[in-house]
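Regression test attached.
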Amino acid sequence: MKLPEIIIIAALAEANRVIGKNGQLPWRIPEDSQRFKRLTSGYAVIMGRKTWEFDLQKKPLLERHNIIVSSSPQPNIAAESTSAHPHLSFVASLQDGLTQANESKKVFIMGGARLYAEGLTLADTLELTLVAGDFEGDTFFPEYDHLVGTQFELVKVESHPGFRFETYQRFYP
Ligand SMILES: NC(=O)c1ccc[n+]([C@@H]2O[C@H](COP(=O)([O-])OP(=O)(O)OC[C@H]3O[C@@H](n4cnc5c(N)ncnc54)[C@H](OP(=O)(O)O)[C@@H]3O)[C@@H](O)[C@H]2O)c1
C-alpha cells in the first residue's frame, strides 16, 4: 500500500517564527484560512492537544479526519466529540497518528511546535505561510533555514501584501 504524502502546513511570522499566542493564532488572514481549508479538505490532519482544545475549541475540522495527539489521550473528550463527528481519532504519538492516517492519500501535520519539530524529519512537503514582520507570541515554528538547500527545495512562491505562501519539497541529493 502506498504511504500517504506527509505535509507540514504552518503559518509563521517571517522575522521570528512565531506561530501562536495564548493558545490562538496571532493574526487573522482569511486567505490563509481559505488556503488551509482548500489544501486539507478530504485528507487527514494531525494536531497537538492544545491546538485542538484552545485554537479549534474542540470543534473538528469538517471533511477531514481529525487526529489529536496527547501523551494521555482523553476518552471523555473522545466520547464527547466522536458522537458529533466520526472522523476523529485520539492517539498517543505522531507515529500513531500517521498510522491512523494510512487510509488517506495525504496527511497534514498542522502543529503546534513539537509536532512540527518531529514532523520536519518525516515530511515530504512543507506548505508555509510567511507572515511579514515579527509578532509577540509564546509558540514557535522550529528553525528550518538549514534544511533549505540540503533537504528541501523551494518549488513555489505566491506573494500577497503582508504574507506569502511558500511550498518546499524534499529532495534526495
Ligand atoms: N500558525 C500556525 O500555523 C499554527 C498551527 C497550529 C497551532 N498554532 C498555535 O500554536 C499554539 C499551540 O501549539 P503548542 O505547541 O503550544 O501545542 P500543541 O502542539 O497544539 O499541543 C501540545 C500538546 O500536544 C501533545 N503532543 C504534542 N506532540 C506530542 C507527541 N509527539 N506525543 C505525545 N503528545 C504530543 C501534548 O499533549 P499532552 O499535554 O496532553 O500530553 C502536548 O502538551 C496555539 O497558539 C495555536 O494557535 C499555530
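Expected vs. actual: identical. The two ends are 26 Å apart (CA to CA).
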